[in-house]
Amino acid sequence: MDLFFIHEKKDLILMGNTGVGKSYLAKCFAYAATQSSIKTLFTTAIDMINHLVAAKADHSLVKKLQYYQRPDLIEVWRRSVSKPPLFPMAFIIVLICNLANVSWSQPPESSKPIKIIISNWTSQIALSKIIGKIYIKMGYNIEYQKVSISNQWGLLSRGLADVQVEVWEGTMTKMFEKLTTEGKVVSAGTHDAKTREEWWYPAYVEKVCPGLPDWKALKRCYKLFINPKTAPKGMYLGGPWEKPDMVRIRALNMNFLVIRASNGDELGKNLDKAIKEKSPIVIFNWTPNWVEVHFNS
């Protein structure tokens, strides 16, 4: 049995319906790990949480966290529920450590604030705030900087900003690779999530625009998307981010205009409104994102 994820320090999440063999497979991994002299702990999610809560109450949380850090493999069994876990257990432990006001043992190397870039999309903001809390708990001073995508590279390369937690391949690859190659920016790692950026429409639009998802069908059906702001052309609702939407429209000779939402929340509100009214809409969307979980598209 291949235990590569242990040696590469990656999380492995087993998901599936009741009775498909998740627990059995997890025990096989645990057995294989012990046979390879890998320190292994097999526990349940509820036991782990109860232990940590109890440890907080009797002021032994640091000792209990060290207990969970000793094994090379921790298998956390969870009963089948309607929604699968979204975060790796290592990340959950860090959050528990934050919320519990645990003092980290090593003093910070500097009192100079760590400058964390804040961008204009939700996941980046949330992750930046989380990592900021972690730095504070470790004793560091932090400073958040709201910076545009285009302006962030100069700040990072000159040491005027320190951390950007999300670099999206669709818009930032060129500068990111240039500055990492030049040694001006350090890559802290790559996320395994597969990203995609797209023009997105609700599934019901296909009933009134035959031929979708072929872009030529969308070109023919532009009148369905006419909006008072764009008449006599159709409206494509984009985000505030730097995307080549108008270049694509001109290249394909599509009768559309781009209206940019001021933020991701505005995109969501327009989408909710259109779906409630069953009105045609085409918007900028990206994966991973919540949209396709909630709406058929």
UniProtKB/TrEMBL annotation:
Residues covered by the IstB-like ATP-binding domain: 3-74
Molecular function in Gene Ontology: ATP binding; transmembrane transporter activity
Domain ABC-type glycine betaine transport system substrate-binding span(s) in chain numbering: 112-292
Stated name of the protein: Glycine betaine/proline transport system substrate-binding protein
GO CC annotation: ATP-binding cassette (ABC) transporter complex
UniProt xrefs under Gene3D superfamilies: Glycine betaine-binding periplasmic protein, domain 2 (3.40.190.100), P-loop containing nucleotide triphosphate hydrolases (3.40.50.300), Periplasmic binding protein-like II (3.40.190.10)
Domain of life: Bacteria
Taxonomic source organism: Candidatus Magnetoglobus multicellularis str. Araruama
InterPro entries per record: ABC_Gly_betaine_transp_sub-bd (IPR007210), IstB_ATP-bd (IPR002611), P-loop_NTPase (IPR027417)
One Pfam match: IstB_IS21
